[in-house]
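dumping this here before i forget
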Amino acid sequence: MNKRFLKNTDWSILICVIILIIIGLIALYSATINSELYEFKRQCTWILISIPVMVITILIDYNIIARFSPYLYGLSIILLIAVLFTPAINGASSWFNIGFFAFQPAEFSKIFVIIFLSSVIVRIQKKSRKEINKLSKLSIILGVTFLPVLLIAIQPDYGTAIAYIISLVLILYVAGIDKKYIIISFIVLAITIPLMYFFILPEHAKSRIDVYLNPNLDPRGAGYNIIQSKIAIGAGKLFGMGWLNGTQTHLGFLYPKTTDFIFSMIGEEFGFIACGLIIVVYVILITKSINVAKTAKDDLGSYIAIGIVGILLFHVIENIGMTIGLLPITGIPLPFISYGGTSFITNFILIGLLLNISSKRHKNMFIE
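structure:
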């Protein structure tokens, strides 16, 4: 590692990640104390596996990684098709189970899709940055994204599918998409969302939306988790009930307490102040990541970085929002805090890419 690498790399991003991991491990220890710390021990293993993966991602120039992105993208599409033929878990065909190891291809595909999509846009913009606004070129970009989005929605995993779309929107914005397309998109969404609700969404998805609007419609069924989540966060008040003392957590009312609702568990045991501090750390992490996109040395780095911002931003807002009843429950984990091997490794790779890009930056690439 040369001096330029050490000087340019935004280590505050890594510090934020370390803080979140420590908070997650403390929360997981409490959440799994009655189950022989199974998930806590597994999470420690995932951390040990993820660290060298992140280091490798930092050291390999992201331009080199981008050269292989068409093959990685093709592999991700194959995996997303193949997973549709696996047995459903909790109503979704999203996982490959290989002995002791299970992984979710939609998580790893985030990396491949962001890098390949960014590469495609850079190639399109070789002649002119305005090329992106030609309908034929824009169709290619949308096709690259919506093919995996469609496959993920079929599983169904709508939360992860939306994360891809948020990432696409931010990349297009930074790439200089014409405002008319943004306006048209809002009009299309205003028309299609009601149509999807009444004619396309399966009953379980409609039920989640109905319960999101009024959890008391099914307090012992679909509304149970969100009601218990609100009770847990409310019970924590300002300073929490104390580590290992959460009643909703340890009496089994809060579920799943190690993944989707770990923020609720933290709110119950550590209170509003701890939850506020977590949000502050996420704000710093995302702000620093946006700065990496703004100061990347080239368009490719800028697009990859802002695409990663989209993934992280959606996960944080959706997970915290669903635990406090502001957003529908989608099963989206909280980055670096929730238990999960695939998501953990994926997030470490995304952070590795951000550090990789920041180590080579020296000018602002955002369009004015």
